[in-house]
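Reading group handout, session on sequence-to-structure problems. Before we discuss, look at one worked example. The prompt was deliberately terse, the way you'd type it at a terminal:

> structure Surface antigen-domain-containing protein

The input record follows.
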Amino acid sequence: MAKDPNVDYQALFEQIKTAPCKVSQVEKANDVKGEPLRTKPHLIDRELERVYAASTLEEIHAALEEAGRNLQQLGVFKRMDMLLNELPEDEPDACSLVLDLEEKNWYKVHAATYVQGNENTFEAGAGLHNITGHAEHLVASVEYGTQSSSQASLSYEQPRVLGFPAVLDARLHRLVNSHQRASSFTETLRGGALGVKSLSGRHSLQYEMGWRRLEDVAGRVASRAVLAQAGDYLKAAARYTFMVDNRDQPGAPTQGWAVRACTEVAGLAPGAGSLRFAKQQIDAQYLIRLASFLNLSFTASAGAMLPWDLERLPRVSPVQPTCIADRFFLGGPSSLRGFRTKGVGPTDTRRPQAGEPADSGPAKRDALGGDLYASVMAAANFPLPHPAFKALNAHGHIFANGGSLVQLSGVNQPIPQRVREFGNTWRWSVGAGVVLPTWVGRFEANYVAVLSAQEHDRVKRGLQLGFASSIFL
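And the output record:
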């Protein structure tokens, strides 16, 4: 029904909002195609309970707004309209509600390519949504990378489970992550995860269990430190993530702040071969808009992990090394510019390939990662004058970047000594470049000068191209 332009509806609502009023009947329209809705009636009625209980027009209005938000959170409606109508004069305190809903397609397919680290990846998937009318989402996906990485997963999501503002998530997966280029090993993980997350995105709790295999599939080139980690492991871990994001816009924020903290405890299953460690990581960003053409951003990230021994609880076990697949890595646009991906931190010499001459040059080294890391970045961001950059939402930046990474366990040194080494081995770089936001992360083209580096770091001075996948960059 079109609104009369001569009527001040807001003023009229203010006059009658406290008058007694009840919703006495609800009419649920069919889908736009004339077919009944797939969504079960009890899911819709559950969100309308507060509407039925309202006793004034103001209460009905507030209840309808809440019901609309809750129904939207189910993720199955493309459009929803709610219209209140007056009933005949013999029921002056009653009204009717017309609920007009349009559902999304029951299926969805997608395909995409993206770059992660040094690997190009192709992804394809298909999903069934609300097929039984319970607002469920069933998605199957596969990924293949140019370095032999692959992933196959089947996931089930149930939003607003039991009416609570939370999403239940169950997943089965088989992952193959190739770290051959940087660390000479391949990780295969078969297992599943069960989790629950708040609809606001602030809280997420997940339990993961899977069988992991680490191996040198390239054959007799991995360093001794990597070979010592080869074998089968059981990973049973609980992970809690807390996040607050008060930045003004996604993709290319200009002001505000955000914090994410992730706590993981592994070893929550009995038996030999179970990985046992505690891990904490924190990311934060603060942005200040100085003018319409300039804003400053300050980003920090830090993490620590240590293994623990069931027989020595509550003490940690600094002698036992952590698993290389769970450690932190530094280097590349996602963490420390001016260095190659995973190019910072502890390394070990790879074994020579069969038939390789002894004088073939410096020996290649495997990145081992670390148990304690931190990185910081300060940047000035500014728009670029050419219309093409504006059309792409690209901007320029000048930055200073620093970071450090060390191992805490498995190195036969006391932890305080390792912490001192962490403070004495910071790497620093400065540079300038162009940033292009994309759906898979920020593509950066930077010119970088490295101010300080450590022995065996893989430095990338001059022009550096790559994707920064973290939302805190």
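Points for discussion. First: The chain has a mean pLDDT of 87. Second: The helical segments are 9-16, 41-47, 49-53, 57-72, 180-183, 224-227, 387-391, 415-424.
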